[in-house]
Design a protein that fits this description.
Elements lengths: L2 H4 L38 E6 L6 H16 L4 E6 L2 H13 L6 E3 L4 H9 L6 H8 L7 H10 L12 E8 H6 L8 H13 L3 E4 L6 H15 L3 H6 L8 H15 L12 H9 L3 E7 L3 H4 L12 E4 L16 E2 L4 E3 L9 H20 L16 H12 L13 H16 L4 H13 L1
Parallel strand pairs: 1-2, 1-3, 5-6
Antiparallel strand pairs: 3-9, 4-6, 4-7, 4-8
Length: about 450
């Protein structure tokens, strides 16, 4: 997914070298002597290494926060350093080997690499550190749950964004065809059949990127086999070639065989798929809430924000999962250098930042994040409010298809997605290929 969205989708996503004194599990360690380059009560200097440009969301919010922090500790500064997402992992490895990781940095692109950074002592174990600082309760519990699922039960990264995923639909198209938001997979297929028969593309999807299609496979599996179905695969307790998993691939392949993704899905990228939906040419669009920014943009959204509804991925008959188990992700999260951490200096900045990030991000950029909001703006766009309400109602967030996969398996899955829905690859061959990649 695009770095400016889900620096996963996702994301990313999604979506993630060595040598730091002390364990990442010791959040109270003073770490390196620099500690953010300040004596106690003096100015704090922080560098943020990010895949976003200085004028993008995360750097902009942090700059605003540093302006506020500098009023309490004059002379404190933030340096935003940009790195392309494709170069991020290599950059982190190089800086880690040189003991030169900055105070804040975007996490590696794979969950396995994120967890390794924590276990090796490069990234700060944030739960004990934030608890000691008195601000752990400023994080949204759903966001904490998502990151812990990815990082082996630990919190090594901060959720600068928090996304729900599901099916966005065109209210007018649904109303014109007497369709109510489907609550079950069978109802979804029936609705798609009706739309296809009327010449309306049921689903906009990006076959070039692959992950918008594999998301559907993963969600079906979770609805059928239960919320821990994909973790069982990662833990070696199940295989993607087992019957419940194959049914997920088959169900999505069947959508493609019926023409429900329209013509040219294999050559359609993210932007083209979104544009198809926002021009009213497709009835449904499975996507994460990072797309809400585009939904709220009249220049991109030709059907109007009021014309877009959201529905959870539907239930599957006889399945162990429920529609209340919402797929969620935290985009590309951000880590704190264990080596640079000092409770009296960078710790005070971290305390201020965590305590104010949610309010500032929402007020300044309209962002939904993994931080609680204490003082919401007087006016919040309806689409943003919808996302906030869905997050608040989520008690059991679940992960996406490739969340716990290796980089190799993720690539195989996403490259095979378009052939899966265009008849170029059978569900059995698709799942076998991904499982083989997981096996190494």
């Amino acid at each position: 997914m695009r770095s400016s969205k889900l620096a996963v989708i996702a994301v990313a996503t999604l979506l993630l070298g060595a040598g730091c004194g002390g364990s990442g599990g010791k959040g109270t360690s003073t770490g390196g002597a620099s500690g953010g380059s300040a004596a106690a009560n003096g100015p704090v200097s922080v560098e943020f290494l990010s895949v976003q440009q200085p004028t993008d969301n995360w750097p902009t919010v942090l700059t605003k926060l540093m302006d506020g922090f500098a009023k309490e500790r004059p002379g404190s500064t933030l340096k935003n350093t940009y790195v392309q997402q494709t170069d991020l992992d290599q950059k982190l490895q190089l800086l880690g080997a040189q003991n030169a990781l900055p105070e804040l940095f975007n996490a590696p692109n794979t969950p396995a690499a994120q967890a390794q950074m924590g276990r090796s002592g490069q990234a700060l174990d944030l739960e004990p550190a934030l608890t000691q600082l008195g601000v752990f309760d400023k994080l949204d519990p759903a966001a904490v749950s998502v990151i812990k699922q990815l990082e082996g039960g630990k919190l090594y990264a901060l959720p600068f964004e928090l996304n729900i995923e599901g099916i966005w639909y065109n209210k007018k198209i649904f109303a014109d065809n007497a369709i109510t938001p489907p609550a079950t997979w069978d109802d979804l297929v029936t609705a798609a059949t009706t739309l296809n028969g009327k010449g309306v593309v049921p689903f906009a999807a990006a076959g070039v990127d692959g992950w918008p299609i594999t998301r559907l496979v993963g969600d079906y599996i979770v609805r059928l086999a239960g919320p821990d179905a994909l973790k069982k695969v990662a833990d070696g307790q199940a295989k993607l070639t087992d019957e419940p998993y194959l049914k997920g691939a088959q169900a999505v392949a069947d959508l493609g065989a019926k023409g429900f993704f329209g013509k040219g899905v294999a050559s359609q990228d993210y932007q083209a798929a979104e544009d198809l939906f926002l021009r009213g040419k497709a009835a449904m669009f499975y996507m994460g809430s990072w797309a809400v920014g585009d939904f709220n943009d009249p220049a991109k959204n030709k059907i109007g924000a009021d014309s877009i509804g959201f529905m959870p991925f539907p239930a599957v008959a006889g399945g162990a999962g429920t529609a209340e188990q919402t797929p969620m992700n935290a985009g590309l999260p951000t880590m704190v250098s264990a080596k640079k951490y000092n409770p009296a200096t960078t710790g005070e900045w971290l305390k201020y930042m965590v305590g104010n990030y949610g309010d500032t991000a929402l007020a300044e950029r309209g962002m939904v994040t993994g931080f609680k909001v204490a003082n919401p703006p007087a006016s919040v766009p309806a689409m943003t409010k919808l996302v906030q309400d869905q997050i608040a109602a989520t008690k059991d967030p679940v992960l996406w298809f490739e969340a716990l996969f290796t980089a190799k398996a993720t690539s195989v899955a996403q490259k095979g997605a378009a052939p899966l829905v265009t008849g170029g690859m059978s569900p059995q061959d698709f799942m076998s290929a991904v499982q083989d990649a997981l096996n190494g």
